[in-house]
Amino acid sequence: MDTKILVVDNDKSLLQNCKSVLETEGYAVDYCMSHSEAESLFKNNDYVLMMIYMPECYAETVQLIRSARSVRPGMLISAVSDAPSHGSLKSAVAAGAKNYLRAPVAQPQIIAEAKKAVSRAAEGHSCCSDITPEILAGLDEIIKNNKSRQGALIPVLQAAQELIGYLPVDVLKRVASGLDIPESEVHGVVSFYSIFTMKPKGRHNIRVCLGTACYVKGSEEIVKKISEELKLDVGGMTEDKKFSLETVRCLGACGLAPVLVVGKETFGDVHAKDVMNLLKQFE
Amino acid sequence: MKTHRISVMLCGGTGCIASGSMKLRDAMVEEIKKRGLQDEVNVVLTGCNGFCAQGPVMTIYPEDIFYQKVTVDDIPLIVEEHFIKGRPVEKLFYKEPVKKKVIPLMRDIPFFSLQVLRALRNKGLIDAEKIDEYIARDGYQAAAKAITQMTSEQIIDEMKRSGLRGRGGAGFPAGLKWELCAKVEGDQKYILCNGDEGDPGAFMDRSIMEADPHVVLEGMLIGAKAIGASKGYIYVRAEYPLAVQRLKIAIDQAKEYGLLGDNILGTDFSLDIEIYLGAGAFVCGEETALMRSIEGERGMPRPRPPFPAQKGLWDKPSVLNNVETYANIPMIILKGADWFRSMGTEKSAGTKVFALSGAINNIGLIEVPMGIPLRQIIYDIGGGIPKGRKFKAVQLGGPSGGCMPEPLLDTPVTYEDIVQTGAIVGSGGMVVMDNFNCMVNVAKFFLEFTADESCGKCTPCRVGTTVMLDILTRITEGKGHEGDIELLQSMSKDIIESSLCGLGQTAPNPVLTTIKYFRDEYESHINEKWCKTGVCRDLCTFYINKEKCIGCGACARACPKKAISGEKKKPHEIDQNMCIQCRVCYETCKFDSVMIGPRSMREELKKKEEKEQTTDAEPQSVETA
Amino acid sequence: MPKLAADDLKKIKDSYRSVFTIREGGQRVTITVHMGTSGIAAGARSVMEALLDELHNSGVSDVIANASASSGVPGKEPMATVEVAGESPVTYGGVDAIIIKKIFREHVLNGSPLQQFIVAKESEPSCEAES
Q: Please, do chains A and B touch (3+ CB pairs < 8 Å)?
């Protein structure tokens, strides 16, 4: 899949220059000069990066950044300005821009920015393809439904994770602002409880029970085996996004020890030598 | 509904569902329809039967026939032979593990016959998703009695006289807890249920919530009436999706009947109960931490006083009891404190549910009178140790508990007797270990758990458990040195004395008890670099006793590295350069001829092998040592 | 669903009494119809169906119907055994749909066995004897 970048500016020659620079680096580039066009572009395309020029009258541009942030929370937004007043920069950041570039932007800077956006997306810092506008709407709905409830944070995070599969930073921020709780507190809760994860999970999440009964029957060997064979660490995901591996404390199914859960299916009496065979059935 | 003649109670607990009971139910219902028996046979999906390892299991009434390890292919046979022709299917009967005797009736199987069911009185007898079936078993009558006929003082008095102690671990008298809270003035009080069963190896609360969710609600209703609470929360582990689902159904049904909500049974008493999903933090089993978690914060304990009875959830007076405690309450109210005290001992009244697992024949959930000796649980109910191995230890009380050796097996299971040994009754996890388990490794396992689960608030617990874990890891890797045992002991003492909550105060117990009862294992790990069970890979050498080996070749076939060679019917040999100490040969050998030596032996054997190879070049003349 | 009053709990319990007699035991009478291959060939199924009808219509909750393997007594099938708690079991032979209803009314409900159909008293024909 092409890595797509959107550039918004009011100077066509600059845009064309930027496009050719990035295209030689292998990126797919769209550009436009009007805000309405930009809006429809980022609604329909999955960009990793939007570079946007901040004109002197920046109110409308800020509006556009805000809209881009909500539609594409995973996209890196970089504001470009030649004479940044304190106001334009602050507003851009408040609306959701992450970076600021001083115009005119030099060629290496443009490329560096694109690379930054790509690595940010790959880190799972935010994964563009996961967080669609529908998911965001679902998240907002969850927040709305729980907002008045006492102690809403954990149920909201649980529902959000159920919806998205994991909790990327942008989701945490949205939850924080939605519930009016400091981001630090939200992160504190997410990192405290083992059920929450900020890393994406594979299509099939494997959970190996390390409870006492399973442990004394060799479940540690199962973890080692899966980890070796699939080349993934506990907490990690395979490159093809097929499997992810977790360990859990006790599933309370000690009668079947050692126990392993794939997705929502529980398997009992699993042994290290058979485990890879068992995983074969998952596509 | 037509009168049927057969009830099929198919276990729908987590264990049996994992073994396929949902498919069985569908197949059974379909087959029954096919044979036109739908009016005669009633198929009920119950909660956990308790005999999880034999799953999927089912009991057929009125005969009380118990079928185990049933597959979909067995269904037509059961319907044809048993339901139509009246001939129970013998091949699905339980077989006694030692004498291999076939036992058709559930009530005759020692695993069941030696139990006394109180908290689990409805297990396997009702459809957990039907409130009417719970009511048919006297359900909600105790709550009705408490709400319409008893005062708060009367309820608390009955509870105090019963001597019921909290079943979650600490064993604090439930009646006293209620009394403390009832005395506190407050416009809003909370009744809370702890279903955050975090001890690894414990699953009694899960089973109760799955099999009999209404009993939890009824216990909470009685507690709410006693303390004057109008709002309740059940805090359940998210790892228990089935329990959550059943509780949700139960709450909805109870609301529909007006047994929860406003003006219950036409009185001015009201109670609303909500489920709160835990998020996977062991420390949340501690009551103040659990309350913080419901408030949506990190689950970190608070110092006491103030006690939760005074300032609990959202600083309001609150009472928290565990699932099993609540399950005991309705019968105390209905039958009285004296009836409750008729089982158990003076200080430990009633019965206790245990989750029996590990190296034992009959794995599952049991309820026994308190005071029963451990030996009876392990050998009579549990059916002893499988595969001809030897009992080594039983671990009680999870990460807060300890390991008890063979000489202590006659200890009666009561709060006061078990604590004398250094272990605790705890929530009731009972994991049996055989001579294949390394006790240093077991201690390390629990420390790994507590070090990971320490919330981090108290330094001695946060740092102390980690340092202790480092020492234990060192020992199991062959880097232990003299003084380590004493260091572990003195650190344990400090952690116990200076931690705020139960987690830190009990975290060193597994280490202390294994040192107390299995010190020789620590010493051989440290001094001889020898793990005699072969669990710690760095501390063992596997070799074959040539006098015992009959050359069956089983070990050679099992070896993943093909490190074992030898002619058929002649003693085999392990190539030390290839061996990865996986222990498979040791587990496979039926003649005890695979031996485990200290680490140092590896080099000696390697040298010997080299020597033999050079002599091999000459004409064959190898003698056995 | 209407909100319950305390008395309603007992009503619900009563409505389930026959169900729980099957599961918990404690029944006053067990009527066993001897099925098995030969029993069924002789018409034991229709006896069982008639019995269940009768049980249902009578509304009693302390009587259960049970099936067992065939009695192994040739020429007497279909057979049924009535076992009243505290009394010795009575086995009837040559039972059909009408006779079983009679047995139910006379013996089970009124306590007077139907002498003309009795084939055995005291000990029930052993199930284990069946092959």
A: yes
Q: The domain that contains C114 carries what CATH number?
A: 3.40.30.10
Q: State pLDDT tens for residues C1-42.
A: 578 888 899 999 999 988 899 999 889 999 999 998 888 888
Q: In the predicted model, is pLDDT for residue B228 greater than 90?
A: yes
Contacts of B196 (CB under 8 A, 6+ apart): B235, B236, B237, B278, B284, B285, B290
What local confidence, expressed as pLDDT, does residue B259 receive? Answer: 96
Same domain, A17 and A117: yes
Complex ipTM tops 0.90: no
Domain B439-527 -> CATH class: mainly alpha
Tell whether C59 is covered by a domain.
yes
CATH number of this structure's domain B351-434: 3.10.20.600
Sheet holding B58-61, edge to edge: B41-46, B6-11, B58-61, B65-67
Closest Cα in chain B, distance from residue C56 (Å): 5
Residue C17 covered by a domain: no
Bigger pLDDT: B156 or A137? B156
In a domain? residue A103: yes
pLDDT tens string A88-134: 878 888 888 888 888 788 888 888 888 888 887 766 544 445 677 78
Q: Domain ranges in chain B? A: 6-107, 131-341, 351-434, 439-527, 540-616
**CATH class name, domain B131-341:** alpha beta
Verify whether the Cβ–Cβ distance B199 to A251 is below 8 Å. Answer: no
For chain A, the domain total comes to 3
pLDDT of residue A44: 87
B55 touches chain A (CB under 8 A): yes
What pTM did the predictor assign? 0.84
CB B531 within 8 A of CB B505: no
Touching chains A and C? (3+ Cβ pairs < 8 A): no
DSSP code for B590: S
Q: How far away is chain B from the Cα of C41, in angstroms, using its nearest Cα?
A: 11
Cβ atoms of A54 and A81 closer than 8 Å: yes
Let me know if residue A199 belongs to a domain: no
A99 lies in which domain range?
4-122
* H helix or E strand, kind and range, residue B464: helix B459-476
Give the domain extent around C40: 25-121
* Fold type of domain B6-107: Glutaredoxin (3.40.30)
* Cβ(A169)–Cβ(A125) below 8 Å: yes
Q: Do B15 and A255 touch (CB under 8 A)?
A: yes
Q: Domain total for chain C?
A: 1
Domain finish residue from A100, A122, A144 = A122
B23: which chain A residues are within 8 Å (Cβ-Cβ)? none
Please give, rounded to a whole number of angstroms, the shortest distance from the CA of B205 to a CA of chain A. 9
Give per-residue pLDDT as tens, B234-288. Answer: 999 988 989 999 999 999 999 999 999 999 999 999 999 999 999 989 999 999 9
Task: Identify residues of A whose CB sits under 8 angstroms from chain B CBs.
Answer: 150-155, 157-158, 185, 188-189, 192-196, 210-217, 248-257, 259, 264-268, 273
B388 contacts B378 by C-beta, under 8 angstroms: no
- Supply the pLDDT for residue B319: 97
**C-beta of residue B97 within 8 angstroms of C-beta of residue B359:** no
Determine which helix (DSSP H) or strand (DSSP E) holds B44, and give its type and residue range.
Answer: strand B41-46
Q: Does C129 touch chain B (CB under 8 A)?
A: no
pLDDT, position B2: 62
CATH at A81? 3.40.50.2300
